[in-house]
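User: For documentation purposes, I need each entry recorded in a consistent format: the amino acid sequence on its own, followed directly by the corresponding structure tokens. There are two entries in this batch. Please keep commentary to a minimum and don't merge the entries.

Assistant: Recorded as requested. Entry 1:
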Amino acid sequence: MSAPRLSVDRERCIGAGMCAMTAPDVFDQDPDDGLVILLDAGPPTADRAAARMAAGVCPSGAITLHEPEPGGS
């Protein structure tokens, strides 16, 4: 089974920083504009719960978690 993948939409991002605070090994903020930077689109198992939470708390919905299809590879 393949791992979940993340994507971000910097145009939707409002720079709240919830992602970087929730999952600092997966997300950061651009020092110039404050927008999200995705550090790891396929985070290791240890960071997946935090990445899921970060996607859920993003106030602008700029983070998408792509779950693998059941039974897919």
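Entry 2:
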Amino acid sequence: MVAQQEGLPNRHVLTVPAMGSAVRLTRETTEQVLARWGINRNHPTVDPALLILGELVTNSVRHAAALSPNITVIHAVGPDTFAFAVHDRHPYQPALCAAATAAGGGGLATVIELTLGLGGTAVVRADADGGGKTIWITLPL
């Protein structure tokens, strides 16, 4: 999976403060980045991707802001793949598989349900020092 993301030719990085406005700013920036890369706003993956991204940023704002004053969002795209990641400096790593099967799992359950429903993948990667994590979502275009 790492090679797949590294092989995506277009990348964009956005760092936002871990506050409520981060969700709106991230969504708006993602729409602009996708448009610049030629991905039509009406593409069937765009709305679910924006919802997934919004949920991940919301979770970082709600649960990580005390330890992570900033959130970094990475966008990457190739001919048939859109990948994005949300990074914060809180060490907790959510169990994505458990979220997928949990009743009433909230935002993370929605993330996993939408990602898998689109034929995508989700993975959590710890920072090398264990002090933070990145959640990567990869979706087919």
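Summary note for entry 2:
The chain has a mean pLDDT of 91.
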